[in-house]
Every structure is written in C-alpha cells, then in structure tokens.
Amino acid sequence: MLTLLKNARVYAPEPLGCQDILIVGGKIGKIAPRIDINQSFLALETVDLAGKLAVPGFIDPHVHLTGGGGEAGFYSRVPEIMLSGIISAGITTVVGVLGTDGTTRHLESLLAKARGLETEGVTTYMYTGSYELPPVTITGSVRRDIIIVDKVIGVGEIAVSDHRSSEPTVQELKRLATEARLGGMLSGKPGIAHFHMGNGREGLGKIVEAIATSEIPIRHFYPTHVNRKRELLDEAGEFAKRGGYIDITAGVSPLTGFAGAIKPSKAVIECLDRGVPLSRLTMSSDGNGSMAVYNEAGKVEKLLVTTLDSIPAEFRDLVLADGLAIEKALYTVTTNAAALLGLYPVKGALAAGSDADIAVLDDKLVLDMVFAKGVKMMENGRVIKKGTFE
Amino acid sequence: MAKENPAAEKPFFTLLRGAEVLAPAPLGQQDVLLAGEKIALIGPDLSAPAGWGCQEIRLNGYTLVPGFIDGHVHMIGGGGEGGYPTRTPELTLSAATRAGVTTVVGCLGTDGVTRHMTSLLAKARGLEAEGITTYIYTGAYEVPTPTITGSVRSDLIIIDKVIGAGEIAISDHRSAQPLQADIQKLAAQARVGGILSGKAGVVNLHLGDGKNGLSIPLAIVEEGEIPITQFIPTHVNRNARLFKEAIEWGKRGGFMDITSGVSPAIGFAQAIKPSRAVREALAAGVALSRITMSSDGNGSMPRFDEHGNMLGLTVASQDSLLAELGDLVRREGLPLAEAIQVITSNVAQALKLWPRKGAIQAGADADLVALTPDLAIHQVWARGRLMVDGGKPIVFGTFEQG
User: Fold this and answer.
1) Minimum-distance CB partner of B159 among A32, A40, A149
2) What pLDDT, on a 0 to 100 scale, did the predictor assign at position B304?
3) A58-340 homologous superfamily
4) How many cross-chain Cβ pairs, A to B, lie less than 8 Å apart?
5) Global pTM?
6) A340: three-class secondary structure by DSSP
7) Which residues contact A54 (CB under 8 A, 6 or more apart)?
8) Contacts of B177 by beta carbon, 8 Å cutoff, 6+ apart
9) Residue of B nearest to A344 (CA)
C-alpha cells in the first residue's frame, strides 16, 4: 500500500530539487524534502533513488492499441500492443485510435483492449471513429459515444489532406467537431476532434476554414503528424500561435525513412523559436501503427511498425542534443497532453493527490524505473510487470 | 476529465481514531488511516508523523462499519402507476448519504417509455461526481428490455457502470408476462456480458404478488446451465407465500433481496417486516451470506386491491435501511457484526464489488459509517470525504439547498 521513494530529483515538471515521494494506494500522498515514516507503518517499501530524476509518467495521446496498418493488404495488419511495449517507453497513459481500417478493425475491440490494459496497470482512453467520415461509432453517433462510454474522450483520427481520407468537406468537419464538443460538454470531457494530417497539398486548409466559418473554439481541433513535411509544420505553427494544440509524431523522422519529415525534437525547437507557446505542443508516438512509405506513383514502398520508444528517444534528444531545459521538454510529453485531455493535474504532474505515475531516469535520461498508479512496472531498465499473455 | 475531485478539498490523509471497527468482522478498537479515496491502514494506536498535514478525528464510543450499499434504487425516480402526477422525483445526494448509503445501484422500473437508460446513466455519473459510488442495471420491467447499445450483453461490455440487467418484472400484473425462455435468454446475455467484462452480470428480478412466484427462475436454474447466483430476486418479503419460496431459493444458495421499504407498518398488510424476514430466513437455515437488503428508494410504493385497482401510493426513502438495521439488532437480537452484512459485504459479494466495497481493510475504498451506540448515524465517509457529520449532511448535490 505504501511506497517511499527517497532522494529523487523531482521534475513536477517544474524542478523541485531533491525530494522524497510517498506513494499511497496508487496516488502521490506527499512530496517533501524528507519524509520519515514511524514504525507503525510496517507495510512500507522504501526505494532509494540516489539522486535519479523522477518525472511524470509519459502520456502518449495517439497509439494504435489494437494495431493499425493494413495498407498493403491483410498481411500488413499490425498486431495488438502488449503492456510491456508501453511500459518500456516510460509511458503510463495512452489514448487509443483505430486508424485507416474502420472495416476489419472495430471500436468495441479498441474499447476492450483499453479496458484490458487498464486492468493490467496503465491508464487508457480512446477516440471513437477511424479515418473516414461519416465516422464509425459504438452507439450510433460521436456525441452518444462520448456521453455513454466512459473511455471515449473525442473522435479521431479523422484523415484530412490524405489520399486515404474520405475527402471530407468543410461542413462535415464542422458537424464532426460540434458533435465532439457537445458530447464533451454534456459528459465533462474535452470533446476533441483529432485529425490525421496527410501529405496532401491542402494541409490544414479545411480545418482552418471550419474554425473561421463556425463558432467552434480552436481547441477542439487537434491535428497530428504535423512534422511530416515542411509546409505542414509551417501551417501548424501558425495554427498553434492562434491557440490550437498541435501534435508532433515522434515516430516520423528522416532517420526512420521519412525523407520530407522534420525530426520531432527539431520540430519542437523550431516551433518554440517561432513563438509557438510551449503549452500548445504535444508529442505522440503513433505507436503500433504501420508507417507506410509511398513512392511517387502512390504505391507502398515499404512498411514500418512504429514503437512507442520514439517518445523517450525524442525527449532525450530535446534535452541532450537540442539543449532544451528538462522541465520544458517534459511539458511536450506529459503536462500538455494532460491539460488537453482534461486530465491535469491527476495526470501530467507530480504533486500530492496526483496519480502515482512516475518515470525514473538516470542522468543520461535513460529509463530506470516506471511506476504506474503506484505499482512498480519497470526496475533497472527492465519491464517487470507483463501483460496477461506475455 | 473535468471530474470533481472531492479528495482535493481536504487533507490527503485522515486518521479516524478509537472507533470499534466492524469490517464487518469485529476487529475491536482500531485506528483507520484514510489516504485520498482509499483506506491505507488499520491498526491500534496509529500515529501520523509530524508534518503530514493529517486531520485526526476522534471516534471513541462509535462503531465504524462499511458504507451501506443499496442495491436497488430508482435514482431518476420511478413510479407513474397512477398516471403522470405519480412519477416520483430524482434521488438527491444527501438523501442517500444521510441514510448511510455510499454505493447505489440504480434501476429504471415500471416505466421504460418516458424513463430512459441514458438518463439513468447520466444521473449515476452525476452522483459519482458529487461523491458517492454508483452503478446501474440496464433494462426496465418489460422483456425484451430497453438497453442503451442494443442488447443487455453489449451494454455490460461497453458501459462501465452497467453491472447487470434489471429490474425485470415477473409474477406481477405490471410485468410483460415473460415466458421462461424470455428470462432464460436475458440471463444468458447478462451472464456472458458479465464474463466478458469481468462484472457480476446478474439479473435483478422484481417479484410481484402473482401466484407464479419464483417458478420461472427456479425452472431455469433446475434445467439449465445458468447458476442460481445469476439472479437476484427482490421484494421477496412482500407476502408470506413468496417469502416461503424465497427461503427455499436461499437454502439452495441463491441470493434473496429483502426490500426494507415494504413493511406492514407503512401499509403493506401482507408483507413481512424486513428485519423479521431476515431473522426468519436465518432461522429457516438460509446462510447469512445469501441475504441482502435494499431500499427500493425513490420508487413509488403503490398498493393495489385484489382487482388491480390502486389504493394509494408512497415514495420509498433509503432511510428504511438504517431503521431495519436497528430493529434487526434490537428487536431480533442479531449481533451488529452480522446484521450489517445484509447491507454491506453481502451486497458487495453478490454484485462482485467486494472487497473494494463492503469491507473495511487496507486498499478498500474509504466508504465508512460511524454509528452511535443506539445505532444512529454519526458520520458518513464516501470515497474519503466526510459527507455527514453529527447525523447531518454537510455535502449537498449540485442543485440541493444546503
């Protein structure tokens, strides 16, 4: 029931210096420079972190939990993610999405997978819908899904400006965002419409037009993969300066075969240099999806399965290669997503009353331990809590 | 989620000192440490380290029991059997907490036309945000029964709060005259939905005064693969004939749910007083663990003559649970540690909520009731938050007048 982490260098994400952290029943009970426990509290595990960093568990707001892909036929359908694939990346909260295939992939399966992972120890949410419009749903409409199904926090990923999209119109985007917004209002959730941005020439055009010609606040429109090409990142920067959240895909990088892409950590730095508020930037892995690389004729050249490890890798690069302060880099992989998803400060913060989702890093920012809802999931860099069938 | 966080309004740690603890097993005088919404520790003479910001509450002379679980409540109102003016109003937060109730299972009732499952779900989520714990049954009196997603099975799998089907009426002039096959298929849906979602998947059966009594569920259990614990028949104390059948049902291992709001004292002449019904069932050899009690709160309690004409109508409150608990101890002579089980641990077991609910132990939800020596409510804690103090509600629902 009680775990005491001694001598942690706490980033909450603000730097708090050397602190002890008391974990009680899945929550953080107290953070103080020195916590001493008297003898009556025998059921206590003490872990000396000896100056290692304790940061909020990473939040990955875009993961194909049941597997994505399928763009090269049935053999290319990516399998389900396992618990250790999440924990090994220091991630303790994920938001699941379907993806391209709303025909042989189902939202009920995604919901069941999310519930299963939650039971295994991490925190999960999901989007209703898939690439196409009208959206696939569980209960008949986006609004109903958000109101009725606890785990559904919005609709997505809806493809725009992509040859795999359903070529949605501006009017359709407005209706969709309205459905998400109303469902969110009535259920006390964020009600987000999350957009997969493709390589098309149109970019954010229709989304910007939908906002300009409606009363829907910009925060309900949340585009991802914005670092997939130069023009899109430029547009996204302007979008974020107007108050929108933008999501950089950690798995899309020139180093992993996406020639036109901007390396995720560089994309963050570039946005900040241009005056984008740090609070509007999130990073997701697009994990467990396929990353199709197409040739000029629109044929699949190769398929990559994306892992979630790109999140800690890009976080590390942000600090060690690009020189961003640790606390600032943490905002992009924890706090900002929590705020967008309406989870802050239960998630995305280390404070009394927050969930005990904690990643412990050594001074090279390599993962050493992970606690999810107070349970130790990783120790000495190795995942110690496996999923049911691992 | 923009969820209210009740724990944020008080110190994270609370130490309840010196109460006699019934977990429900008697643990003697203990200190109980609450951390956020959970019970962290139980032990004699616990002391919170200096600087923890722990609030301490002295409960010497009081008895601490698990928060009551009311397994059958018409959260959005019920009734309507006397026309539209007789539709009963919604449950308010303090009406539950002042009765010691910290977990409520909501159901629709007779009216599956002007009452909707989605409204019940929204009400349950609202009460949860206000501080107590809620679940719901999907369905109404009739079969086929109304659901949210199209079937009982998929409601159970898809919607977190749905833990079974109910209340489905049998042996009642307001029932849909279900066949055995109707109830059997419904129970199968509930069972499979429960299996796939890790929930109880029970069928809450409203028993009327009809002659067929428990014959349908009995026949299903006798011939089929569906276990007897898949059914929770309620209102079994409404007449002597039904009660006799329920005792046989209980002796075979089935749960029998006694309605605390159905009693001769409030006009149900044929009924067996709830506290006496518990005593009689025990005396007849039903295991204590099979007996539960629910209030039927916020439903209407219509009384009909032999021709089916309505004689009168009352609204059931949840206060009857505490009143019957008191009578069970004082008049029927049952020890409190046993009596308390019918509104706490037994309900939690039947609904597969134990030991998170219905138990005072480390790791359980901090749902607690402090009772005075004469079994009145002193304090009620729901998920770590003090809701009732000195017998008076101190936390109110969003639109209640405090």
Assistant:
1) A149
2) 73
3) Metal-dependent hydrolases (3.20.20.140)
4) 93
5) 0.89
6) helix
7) A5, A8, A9, A10, A11, A19, A21, A350, A358, A359, A360
8) none
9) B1
CA distances from A178 to A129, A197, B291 (A): 15, 20, 49
Encoded tokens for B126:
């609202």
- A240, A223 in Cβ contact below 8 A? no
B368-371 and B377-382 beta bridge pairing: antiparallel
Q: Tell me how close the Cα of A94 comes to any Cα of chain B, in angstroms.
A: 14
What does the alpha-carbon distance between residue B92 and residue A158 come to, in Å, rounded to a whole number?
A: 40
Pairwise CA distance, residues B356 & B200, whole Å: 14
3-class DSSP state for residue A230? helix
For residue B280, the tally of other CB atoms under 10 A from its CB is 17
* Contact criterion met (CB < 8 Å) for B35 and A29: yes
The beta-carbon neighbor of B1 closest among A43, A148, A342 is A342
The CATH code belonging to domain B6-65+357-393 is 2.30.40.10
The domain ranges of chain A are: 2-55+348-383, 58-340
Sorted by where each begins, the domain ranges of chain B are 6-65+357-393, 67-350
Structure-token match 């002007």, residue found: B114
pLDDT tens-place string over residues B326-342: 999 999 999 999 999 99
Pick the CATH number of A2-55+348-383 from 3.40.50.1980, 2.30.40.10, 3.40.50.2000, 1.10.10.10: 2.30.40.10
Place of tokens 């606040």: A217
Cis amide bond preceding A134, omega within 30: yes
A286 a catalytic residue = yes
Tell me whether residues A187 and B161 touch, CB distance under 8 A.
no
Best B3, B4, B9, B12 residue to mutate vs chain A (most A CBs within 10 Å): B12
Query: Residue A1: its chain B contacts at CB < 8 A?
Result: 40-41, 362-363
Q: Is B67-350 the same fold as B6-65+357-393?
A: no
Residues A176-197 pLDDT 10s: 999 999 999 999 999 999 999 9
The residue of B158, B361, B385 whose CB has the most chain A CBs within 10 angstroms, and thus the best one to mutate to test that interface, is: B158
Read off the pLDDT band of B307 (50, 70, 90): confident
Q: Which CATH class is domain B67-350?
A: alpha beta
Say whether pLDDT at B208 is over 80: yes
Phi, psi of B341 (to 5 degrees): -65, -30
